[in-house]
Amino acid sequence: MDLEQIEKLVEIIEKSTLKEITVEEGNLKINLKRENNSEIQNVQKNIERKTEIVEEPDEESFITSPIVGTFYSAASPETPAFVRVGDTVKKGQPVCIVEAMKLMNEINCDFDCEIEAVLVSNEQKVEYGQPLFRVKKI
Q1: I need a surface site. Which of 91, 105, 116, 136 has the fewest CB within 10 A?
Q2: What is the pLDDT of residue 1?
Q3: Is 131 exposed, middle or buried (0-12, 13-18, 19+ CB in 10 A)?
Q4: CA 120 – CA 131 distance, rounded (Å)
Q5: pLDDT of residue 35
Q6: 65 near 130, Cβ under 8 Å?
């Protein structure tokens, strides 16, 4: 809400018989009150930030590629993927392989988490810092 909108609210209360008006937009709350019913002597402007206590969900994060290369979800075509959506992963556990210059680099998780989404497909080229997995830290 900008200054023009607040000024319009003041005009509305000045021209009407309203005693009080409260407007909430996002985390902004504006409360305008008439001090005297017959004529406006003072319009009190009370702007306050609303604060809500919200239980924070588990932190969402990403596992990113530490190098440029080719993403592999498993050690070989015959073996199952290191991780799948819904899997719980422990710190230090391998999650994929990124091949760079014919070297297979096993990528390990840096924290305990749950895999929410695999963001790249098998044998896809990946860039440095590219998110590979969306995870929820545990």
Answers
A1: 91
A2: 63
A3: middle
A4: 8
A5: 63
A6: yes
